[in-house]
Design a protein that fits this description.
- It contains nine helices and six strands.
- By secondary structure, the chain is an alpha/beta fold.
- It has a six-stranded parallel beta sheet, sandwiched between helices.
- The mean pLDDT is 92.
Length: 232
């Protein structure tokens, strides 16, 4: 395997692309709790591995997947009707991930173009973002229900669309992700990827020549500062 270049030797990005759930906002445990509660409404129970598979994907795609795991016949519509009130209540309490606001504000002060690339739809995003006005610094967004989006993560479409919106080549973009599906999406799009892995977030790790692991967003900000200083 070819190792990803050290931050000091990696060219500064022309843009940064950010996931939302589990990366900027600490919603993943809450989302998992909501999926588990919805499954239990239909006498089901999801394993830890199954819950990991749901991370980073669009809600409708996840609903189809969960329905396929349940023993009794359930439609995606029925499952989501049970889940959504639970999820809405839970995610309203979500805190920012440590270092998230500082990283976004740093990019803003550097006038570095940013795109939010999330599987959340418009209504869900607005609900989650209502207590975090700093998210509005990311003016360009690719949401799960974007009319121009054909397929969600782990397909490359979301990140390809993000690069298209900015008119920046994907290999000049840094993507920050926490899920395997998100990392696969960004890598297939051609981005350089920083994979956030913390003690509370232990996704299935994998290797790629354009992927590196960070343990905090503060670490990601430091790599970004080094690359900008080197390029400057």
């Amino acid at each position: 395997m070819v190792k990803m270049p050290k931050a000091g030797s990696l060219s500064a990005p022309k843009a940064c692309l950010f996931d939302l759930d589990g990366l900027l906002l600490d919603t993943e445990p809450l989302q998992a709790e909501a999926w588990q509660a919805a499954a239990q409404c239909f006498n089901g129970s999801l394993t830890r591995r199954q819950l990991q598979q749901l991370k980073g994907r669009r809600r409708d795609d996840n609903a189809d997947l969960v329905c396929s795991w349940l023993q009794q016949p359930v439609t995606a519509k029925e499952l989501l009707s049970a889940r959504q009130p639970i999820a809405k209540r839970l995610v309203a309490t979500a805190l920012a991930m440590p270092g998230a606001e500082n990283l976004i504000r740093f990019c803003s002060t550097q006038r570095l173009p940013m795109v939010l690339v999330t599987s959340s739809d418009e209504v869900s995003f607005q609900h989650k973002a209502s207590g975090h006005p700093w998210l509005n610094l990311i003016e360009t967004r690719v949401l799960g229900d974007d009319s121009e989006l054909r397929t969600g993560k782990p397909a490359p479409d979301p990140f390809l669309l993000a690069c298209e919106k900015l008119r920046v080549p994907s290999d000049e973009c840094w993507a920050f992700e926490d899920s395997r599906a998100g990392c696969q999406s960004a890598l297939e799009a051609g981005c350089w990827v920083w994979h956030l892995v913390t003690e509370a977030n232990q996704p299935d790790l994998f290797q790629h020549s354009r992927l590196a692991t960070i343990s905090s967003l503060s670490e990601g900000e430091e790599y970004l500062r080094q690359s900008l200083n080197t390029s400057g």
